Amino acid sequence: MKKRLLTKYENNPVMCPAMMPETVLYTFNPGAIEHNGETIMVMDVTTLDDIHRLWIARSKDGVNFTADPTPAPWPAPDPIHPETCTYDPRITKIGDEYFLLYASDLNQNNVRVGIVKTKDFETFERVSIASEFGNRNGCLFPEKFDGLYCRFDRPFGNELEPCSMWVSFSPDLTFWGKSRPLMYKGKPWIDGFKMGAGAVPIKTDKGWLEIYHTVSQTCNGFIYRLKAALLSLDDPGEVIGYTKDFILWPEHDYEMKGRVMNVVFTCNALPQPDGTVRIYYGAADTNIGLATGRIDELVVACLENQ
Fold it and tell me: Cα–Cα distance between 185 and 295 in angstroms, integer?
């Protein structure tokens, strides 16, 4: 039997609606980061008015989480884009600041990439609404390229149409351009019906390791699963290789039954000092699970499919 590259925590889920301080519908798709001796998840939480809000949960051991009493104190909406839902944050640390790229939703499919920043996860400051309509899965690299910030994003025309991962560049986190699809062997890279960035990329000596989601169509709807890719250290838009096999997939009730069935989805991958990685993933848009693996094994699996 082929070895699994990611192992699920035996006591999953680590967060679910029943663990929240008030009645909510769903908890899912957290951004995550380590800050001041704590693991912090910034979760999607759907409240009883059916609005997605970002809510923080904190843990001293990376397993047992306690949610804050109230949602994150989000900045007032941009006046030209009065967002109604906020979800799917990716958290990147640069210097002493944490930048959150998230889906800023005006209404169904009128979504843009929003950016806020914080130093303490107690107060947040708006940076920009940083894309046109029809773009999300924004994910900021922790380093600049030729003096420019770089992010993954995913422009799309309609959620029911194929779409793939792109890179975009910016001098100031507000104005973005030089946008192009990721390339693999000289062609735009497509893996599945649609795909998008998951975690903030992890720098290794072989390339940037990216954990991403890929979506398959079936006669009964979509299935969301995770794979890994390795990108050039010098050119984040160049795919060196990616895993032939899925590295995480729905298989348990908490991943297969919920708001959206048959979904595992990540917005984070946290490298540990021992060479492992922790991934806190959304399960069926209802719960949050934990999976762990070794970074070097993920890199090798990507290089086997160059």
Answer: 24
Residue type, 207: G
Confidence of residue 95 (pLDDT cuts 50, 70, 90): very high
For residue 267, which of 136, 166, 159 has the smallest C-alpha distance? 136
Distance from C-alpha of 213 to C-alpha of 208, rounded to nearest angstrom: 16
CA 117 from chain center: how many Å?
16
CB 140 within 8 A of CB 90: yes
Q: Determine how many CB atoms are found less than 10 A away from the CB of residue 70.
A: 11
Q: Are 65 and 58 in contact (CB under 8 A)?
A: yes
Q: How many helices (H) and strands (E) does the chain have?
A: 2, 24
1 — pLDDT class (breaks 50, 70, 90): confident
Alpha-carbon span 65 to 85, nearest angstrom: 24
Residue 30, exposed/middle/buried by CB under 10 A (0-12, 13-18, 19+)? Answer: buried
Phi, psi angles (nearest 5°) of residue 300: -60, -40
Is 56 exposed, middle or buried (CB count within 10 Å of its CB: 0-12, 13-18, 19+)?
buried
In sequence order, what are the beta bridge partners of 136? 154
Whole-number percent of the chain with pLDDT over 90: 92
Rounded Cα distance, 71 and 262, in Å:
27
Cis bond leading into 13, ω under 30°?
Answer: yes
